[in-house]
Recover the amino acids of this structure.
């Protein structure tokens, strides 16, 4: 059976490996000139900056991501030696600073030491574990697969409001909603648990960054006999008598297939599918879904202090405010670093901005980009004086992301999976056509990976797809 | 809102959003067998009706007990009534 996977990000590469494990013939298409552009890094002034991957939860042995990457045959090409523990720091505008350690063995003692109270926190951890244990994609012992939509979706705000957590600790845990690009009131507690609990297990970066993951995936794909066909943009689907026949590329080339797994943005589909294949209601629903926030990033250097072993969340006076965009006086910022070169330390900072505030085609784009870069540098120097002086090397806008990553929207995580929305399913009305990726299920490395597994499960049976994950394959 | 208005709004929404033949939109019509709306369409239908009637349906468990178009009309009527009661 021939399968085409569209998009070579984490979701696409994971799908290709899972399909190959099912002894399927797979063609993996990528629009960009090289595979997995979001996992790429680039250099400015000899310092290396990562585009999309900075650190992840559950990568260390016994973590869920570790287990999945093992099951996919990817981890052996990353190796435990590449793991680099990362502490998370939370700086409040009041100058109070807290941290969460990189491993679960130190978590409770760190909470005890800083907040003098662990009971409510341990209760939260238990609730998170209970919530994610329902998913067979998170819990290898869970044998049941359900896609039931619960009658009442509990939000993160509901749960955290119900616990008597110390104020700062509550804000820190609310800040984890950044993993989904959502406000706590619109984040389902189950989604939150799936994405944030692994960070309580372990948080790590990888030596070599996103490229290490990409190269390991590419080697595993090579083992599986799958090559990535770059510069191959999907133009349309070939459909006859309501059945998928193949795909047509921008260059006019036709490829026949029995199944197609699409990991791009589903809002691109309307122009790719012949009329009458999908209902107008389907497109209208997908097109009415909100995007996650857009990001403005700066890439800079400092000689004063290293950020290599940590990521820093700059919170506001009130704690975590998801809506505090870069225009505000006290924006919420995410800061991280990377490996130093000759005593120079990379600084990467991300702020969210209002949607598509200024496009590359706008006349004042350069001036706008410069103004926002300077604002972010100045703000960083005020909030983290230990980094001053910070020298700006480059900046990225949503336009930059659209261009380099081939993301159609340039938002942080694609469609916002708010608890207000009904989920988008990986299966569609068109037999043989499946969807996957962060737009379908959840964002991030883990979200995209699980989305791929769910999608493959719909095509081949969930027990088949989960076999290696359950066995904990090496 | 009287039942004829509910029927009119529902039928118009289904006709446009699901490209259904208006002649088929009768109360006896079975949603799956006669109108050809499968379980995937039902998710979209819920959203279409929410928009058409400006109501929230996603957490209503009665949704799984609706089989014919007539069932939908009746269900929407009770929802509208209970919404008005709340106001």
């Amino acid at each position: 059976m021939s399968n085409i996977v569209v998009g070579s990000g984490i979701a696409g590469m994971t799908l290709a490996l899972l399909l190959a494990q099912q002894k399927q013939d797979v063609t993996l298409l990528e629009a960009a000139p090289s595979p997995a552009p979001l996992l790429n890094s680039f250099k400015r002034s000899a310092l290396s900056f990562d585009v999309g991957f900075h650190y992840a939860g559950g990568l260390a042995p016994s973590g869920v991501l570790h287990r999945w990457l093992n099951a996919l045959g990817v981890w052996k090409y990353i190796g435990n030696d590449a793991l680099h523990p990362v502490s998370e720091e939370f700086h409040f505008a009041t100058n109070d600073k807290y941290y969460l350690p990189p491993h679960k063995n130190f978590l409770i003692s760190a909470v005890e030491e800083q907040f003098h109270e662990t009971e409510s926190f341990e209760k939260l951890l238990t609730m998170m574990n209970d919530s994610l244990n329902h998913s067979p994609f998170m819990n290898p012992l869970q044998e049941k697969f359900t896609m039931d939509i619960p009658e009442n979706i509990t939000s993160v705000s509901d749960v955290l409001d119900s616990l008597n957590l110390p104020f700062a600790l509550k804000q820190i845990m609310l800040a984890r909603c950044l993993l989904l690009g959502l406000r706590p009131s619109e984040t389902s507690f189950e989604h939150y648990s799936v994405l944030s609990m692994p960070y309580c297990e372990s948080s790590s970066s990888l030596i070599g960054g996103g490229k290490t993951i990409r190269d390991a995936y590419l080697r595993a794909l090579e083992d599986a006999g799958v090559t990535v066909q770059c510069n191959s943009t999907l133009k349309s689907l070939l459909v006859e008598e309501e059945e998928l026949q193949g795909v047509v590329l921008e260059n006019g080339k036709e490829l026949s297939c029995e199944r197609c797994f699409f990991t791009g943005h589903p809002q691109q589909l309307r122009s790719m599918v012949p009329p009458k294949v999908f209902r107008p209601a389907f497109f209208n629903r997908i097109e009415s879904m909100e995007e996650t926030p857009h990001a403005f990033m700066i890439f800079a250097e400092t000689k004063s202090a290293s950020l290599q072993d940590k990521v820093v969340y700059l919170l506001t006076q009130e704690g975590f405010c998801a809506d505090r965009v870069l225009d505000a006086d006290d924006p919420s910022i995410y800061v991280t670093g990377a490996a130093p070169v000759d005593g120079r330390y990379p600084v990467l900072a991300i702020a969210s901005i209002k949607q598509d505030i200024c496009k590359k085609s706008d006349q004042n784009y350069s001036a706008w980009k410069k103004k926002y870069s300077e604002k972010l540098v100045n703000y960083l120097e005020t909030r983290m004086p230990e980094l001053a002086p910070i020298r700006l090397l480059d900046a990225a806008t949503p336009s930059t992301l659209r261009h380099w990553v081939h993301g159609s929207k340039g938002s942080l995580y694609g469609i916002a999976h708010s608890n207000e929305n009904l989920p988008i399913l990986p299966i569609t009305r068109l037999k043989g056509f499946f969807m996957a990726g962060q737009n379908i299920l959840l964002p991030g490395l883990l979200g995209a990976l699980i989305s791929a597994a769910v999608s493959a499960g719909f095509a081949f049976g969930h027990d088949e797809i989960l076999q290696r994950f359950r066995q904990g394959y090496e | 809102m009287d039942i004829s208005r509910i029927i009119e709004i529902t039928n118009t929404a289904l006709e446009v959003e699901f490209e259904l033949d208006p002649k088929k939109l009768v109360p006896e019509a079975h949603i799956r067998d006669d109108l050809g709306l499968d379980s995937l369409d039902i998710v979209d239908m819920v959203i279409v009706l929410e928009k058409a009637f400006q109501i929230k349906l996603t957490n209503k468990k009665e949704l799984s007990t609706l089989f014919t178009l007539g069932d939908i009309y009746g269900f929407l009527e009770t929802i509208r009534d209970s919404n008005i009661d709340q106001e």
